[in-house]
Amino acid sequence: MANRPSGKDRLQKDIHRLLTTLMQREIDDPKLFGICITRIEPSKAKQGMTIFVHQMNENDPAAVVDRLNKMCPHFEHELRRALTKRRFPSLRFRWDDAFDKSGVVNDLLTKMGNG
Fold this sequence. Notes:
Elements: H1 7-26, E1 36-42, E2 48-54, H2 61-70, H3 72-82, E3 90-95, H4 98-114
Parallel strand pairs: 2-3
Antiparallel strand pairs: 1-2
């Protein structure tokens, strides 16, 4: 018997899918083009969701996260309309620096292999 995803997992997947669509269709800011949602995690207080994002070759991740966090009320409103939930978690964006770190590791491994 296959494991069925929990309600929390389904909600996270729905939020991921809908936020990706909203960001592609409704963001006109060229600074935010190419933003990718890398993962979504419930906050420690369990009343919110942390949305981890990344953008290739971004020199100012703090500015990107700040702009996205300013758009949170709009995103939350649109998600409430699309997902009929009584309680909807608040959203907070954070930069996912794991991709930046993985590039450094790849560079080191490449240098070790060539050396």
